[in-house]
Amino acid sequence: MAHFQDHPVWLAKVDYKRAQEIGNPELDLEHNMTQPQDHLTEKSDRYRQLLSDALSTTSIVPDRSSHLHAVAEDYLLMAESYYNDGVHFLDGGDRVNALVAFSYGHAFIDAGIRLGVFCEMKQ
User: Fold this and answer.
1) How is domain 36-120 classified at the CATH fold level?
2) pLDDT tens per residue across span 54-82
């Protein structure tokens, strides 16, 4: 299984300790932690499932000879790569970056649907 180091989607990991050292108030966990850990657990698990479901029900619309087919394949690869990143982060206990990865992955699915290169099949 490929991990985030193995493909072009390289999600920068949030370095909270460094953020505190340089005084970045937006990433200061002591003062800005508004969601309890169990809420983060629920949300990251839910977003993982949402992206997994979207990946399994998304199909490419344009004909293979169309340039848009290649665009759709790229979008799908990005979504799958972010899913794999999220799983990797979860395995490492980093739920914050896992949630970010799952959210970014779903954004590529949404963008493909809005562009018209994907359709979602109903389960």
Assistant:
1) Substrate Binding Domain Of Dnak; Chain:A; Domain 2 (1.20.1270)
2) 999 999 999 999 999 999 999 999 999 99
Indicate the pTM of the whole model. 0.70
Residues 20 and 29: beta-carbon distance below 8 Å: yes
Q: Provide the residue ranges of all domains of the chain, joining segments of one domain with +.
A: 36-120
Name the token pair of 76.
């799908």
**Rounded distance between C-alpha atoms, residue 78 and residue 93, angstroms:** 22
- Neighbour-count burial for 77-90, b at 16+ CB within 10 Å, e otherwise: ebbbbbbbbbbbbb
How far does Cα 116 stand from its chain's mean position? 20
Contacts of 71 (CB under 8 A, 6+ apart): 62, 115, 117
State the Cα–Cα distance between residues 112 and 107, nearest whole angstrom.
9
Helices 37-57 and 95-115 meet at what angle, rounded to 10? Answer: 30
